[in-house]
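Section 5: illustrative case.
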């Protein structure tokens, strides 16, 4: 009776299983397709949100780099033009004297047979007297080798005909004697000295560059000069004019201010030129000067942020500005961009991303519907196949049940033997999984498990953990030039060098390709940095058989309490990227 009841129960269970196997694929396969499609759509939405969030950040980063490059280029432009001021002075002065001597020689040649020496001298003097430059500050003078003044500027005309050979400048230099000596020995040349100046107290002298040259007759020599400050002001004026023309072609204007606060150039607000923003008693201009001065005092360059009128929108907006001091000068150059510029670009790029995202979603939904329909057809044929297979299996199971009883006894001993073999194989696989086959360092899987454990220990016991992300510089070049065998050799030797500089409690793992993770428990970031720097030194000095020393770039971070492993690694990766961007062979913390 009991056996018959058991048999009926088995029949019912078999029927239930048959029903499940028949209709299960109709439910499972379409449901799997649907869930997979929803997962893809959700992933796409999350990716879209992250991309939109990064747009503004990336644009700010790009604009900051752009304005920095523009300012650096302008500073180089200014440095170059200031460097050639004295060269241009020499060319101008020498050209004036040479032209004056040509005129004098032409007059002497024309009248030498018809007029007396004194008459010819007077003609030459009066011909050259009107030759004035820089509002009369620069002129042609004529002296003879005894120091007698033949042609002088208007304010010194009373000295014509008298000797000034004993004249000394403010430094006690006997400049007339020096000029005569130069003309006699060399024929011509330049001299730096100090001299009186038209329109100023005759007892006061100013630095000037003079060019003198022997005329070739009458024991005369001619000269001309320019005052350094006048030449500098003139050159600066020309330079600022050229910059304003360059500035007119840019969307972001420059402004140039002196260290004392005087505005030299402001393309958007020309009315500020010549004013001293330092003298403002209050307002944003005074605050801007303070920020500029602080940067100039501490670093000579840097970024500042403030609110300022936007010439395009006519509104006060946040402005991001980069400033840099011009070397060997009291000039400070600045340019920037307004927040609305970034906002407009963000809006444009966001629209483009949104349109692309909508198109992608449309394609995903359409593809999911098609895939769902196809899955229903597949489910039908799969169900038929499974049902038929199940019926065949039922028949085979009945036949095999008897055979199984016979085999059970022998299988039991074999199972024990196989279990032992599997345990050994498991141990071998664990070892393989934890060790990188090439370098013998921890594998990526193993080092990540160690990192999880160390982070758990930090959070629980409030301990310290430093992590270094290491990347070999120009590793692809090694593989390309020397081949992959050489690349493998470099990886193996590098790990050996890294281990030599680590303690027994530290860990090293191959994170991928030529990247490695170093875990230093109970080590603050300063100590870890010292260890990394020793590593970098030993690596650069080691002979890998390459044409150049091997270097590494490192991102070094210290664990922050309750920080996720992803953020921890992301910080290290970001710092590694900075090391690469800043020239490699660096450790960035």
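Designed sequence:
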């Amino acid at each position: 009776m009991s056996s018959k009841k058991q048999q009926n129960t088995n029949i019912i269970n078999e029927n239930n299983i048959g029903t499940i196997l028949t209709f299960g694929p109709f439910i499972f396969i379409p449901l799997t397709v649907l869930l997979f499609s929803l997962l893809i759509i959700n992933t796409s939405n999350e990716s879209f949100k992250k991309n939109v969030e990064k747009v503004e950040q990336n644009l700010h980063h790009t604009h900051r780099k752009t304005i920095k490059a523009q300012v650096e280029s302008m500073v180089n432009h200014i440095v170059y033009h200031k460097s050639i001021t004295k060269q241009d002075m020499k060319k101008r002065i020498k050209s004036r004297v040479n032209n004056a001597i040509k005129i004098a020689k032409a007059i002497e040649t024309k009248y030498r047979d018809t007029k007396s020496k004194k008459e010819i001298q007077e003609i030459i003097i009066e011909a050259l007297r009107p030759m004035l430059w820089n509002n009369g500050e620069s002129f042609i003078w004529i002296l003879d080798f005894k120091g007698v003044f033949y042609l002088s500027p208007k304010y010194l005309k009373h000295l014509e005909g008298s000797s000034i050979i004993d004249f000394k400048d403010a430094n006690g230099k006997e400049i007339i004697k020096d000029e005569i000596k130069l003309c006699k020995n060399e024929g011509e040349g330049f001299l730096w000295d100090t001299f009186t100046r038209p329109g100023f107290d005759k007892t006061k002298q100013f630095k000037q560059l003079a060019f003198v040259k022997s005329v070739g007759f009458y024991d005369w020599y001619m000269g001309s000069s320019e005052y350094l400050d006048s030449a500098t002001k003139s050159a600066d004026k020309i330079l600022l004019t050229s910059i304003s023309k360059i500035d007119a072609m840019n969307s972001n204007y420059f402004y140039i201010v002196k260290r004392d606060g005087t505005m030299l150039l402001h393309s958007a607000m020309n009315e500020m030129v010549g004013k001293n923003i330092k003298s403002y008693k209050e307002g944003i201009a005074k605050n801007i000067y303070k920020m500029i001065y602080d940067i100039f005092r501490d670093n000579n360059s840097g970024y500042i942020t403030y609110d300022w009128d936007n010439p395009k929108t006519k509104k006060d907006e946040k402005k991001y500005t980069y400033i840099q001091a011009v070397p060997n000068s009291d000039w400070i150059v600045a340019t920037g961009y307004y927040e609305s510029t970034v906002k407009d670009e963000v809006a444009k790029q966001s629209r483009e991303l949104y349109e692309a995202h909508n198109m992608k979603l449309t394609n995903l939904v359409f593809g999911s519907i098609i895939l769902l329909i196809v899955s229903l057809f597949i489910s039908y044929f799969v169900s038929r196949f499974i049902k038929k297979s199940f019926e065949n299996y039922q028949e085979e199971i009945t036949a095999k049940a008897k055979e199984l009883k016979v085999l059970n006894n022998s299988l039991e001993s074999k199972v024990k033997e196989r279990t032992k073999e599997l345990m050994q194989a498991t141990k071998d696989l664990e070892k393989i999984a934890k060790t990188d086959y090439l370098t013998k360092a921890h594998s990526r899987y193993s080092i990540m498990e160690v990192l999880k454990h160390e982070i758990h220990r930090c959070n629980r016991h409030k301990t310290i953990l430093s992590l270094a992300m290491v990347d070999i510089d120009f590793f692809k070049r090694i593989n390309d030039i020397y081949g992959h065998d050489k690349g493998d050799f470099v990886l193996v030797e590098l790990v050996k060098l890294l281990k030599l500089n680590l303690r027994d409690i530290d860990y090293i793992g191959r994170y991928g390709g030529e990247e490695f993770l170093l875990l230093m428990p109970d080590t603050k970031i300063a100590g870890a940095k010292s260890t990394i720097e020793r590593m970098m030194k030993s690596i650069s000095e080691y002979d890998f058989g390459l044409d150049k020393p091997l270097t590494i770039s490192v991102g070094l971070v210290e664990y922050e309490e309750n920080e996720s492993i992803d953020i921890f690694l992301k910080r290290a990766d970001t710092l590694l990227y900075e090391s690469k961007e800043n020239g490699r062979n660096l450790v960035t913390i």
